[in-house]
Amino acid sequence: MGKLDGRVVIVTGAARGQGEQEARLFRAEGAQVIVADVLDDQGEALAKEIGAAYVHLDVGTEEGWRQAVAATKRAYGRIDGLVNNAGILRFNALVDTPLDEFMQVVQVNQVGCFLGMKAVAPEMTDGGTIVNTASYTALTGMAAVGTYAATKHAILGLTRVAALELAGRRIRVNAICPGAIDTPMSNPARLDPDADPEETGRALDDLYRRLVPLGRVGRPEEVAQLALFLTSGDSSYITGQPFVIDGGWLAGVSII
Ligand code: NAD
Which PANTHER family does this UniProt record tie to the protein (predicted)? Predict the structure, then answer.
């Protein structure tokens, strides 16, 4: 028996990275999965491989969400889970950040999460689950990613409010806060077809050996396990909470 047997779950930004691993794991645990992304070729190929459905969805658009919800209901008749995973990152000092760039990150990360809950929750089965992808930077600052950090802090606020408002329908809403995870977002070399994935992973581990108590970068498969916990009955009494998965990075600094 799978942990998600009979459940229908939408995962956004699922064409690659953490969303891909969530889609793979959820499918393996018996869920019907809707892979939603703007990367159509990759998303369609993944959906075909794992026996899921693909929908094109730009999470920052209301019309995109309307169509994704309608397509899910057409294909499976119900929605039991949503993982708001899609996100983008831009590097800039706050005072150097153009307003357009700030608004672009807000539109995808923050508005995307808001619109996802707004579109899906009314259509969701009572007792459903929502997992919002925040970040380590939702709970602390990090220079050069101020826009991103602002949106991830906002996602925690949205998560807490949604948990309160949806608890009457037993819909649980939680957030995951990954530290450094080895995906194309934090390791763009993963997108280079000529790069050796093992080698780029090792280079990232070298960087984080000094920063992270567990001495390595996280794997998207590990984040997927946390998303599974929060989507399955294993977390039946948990709602409105942020869950940090960061190898101990946020625990503090070591002086020896
Ligand atoms: P990634 O860049 O590999 O994947 C992000 C996915 O989101 C891609 O498939 C991309 O096409 C999709 N996407 C981007 N804009 C979209 C839009 N407008 N509509 C729909 N899909 C869109 O990165 P990842 O690491 O897998 O990121 C997944 C989530 O985890 C993001 O929310 C990210 O902010 C968060 N996160 C990542 C890290 C990390 O170190 N990798 C750390 C903390 C949080």
Answer: 3-OXOACYL-(ACYL-CARRIER-PROTEIN) REDUCTASE (AFU_ORTHOLOGUE AFUA_6G11210), NAD(P)-BINDING ROSSMANN-FOLD SUPERFAMILY PROTEIN
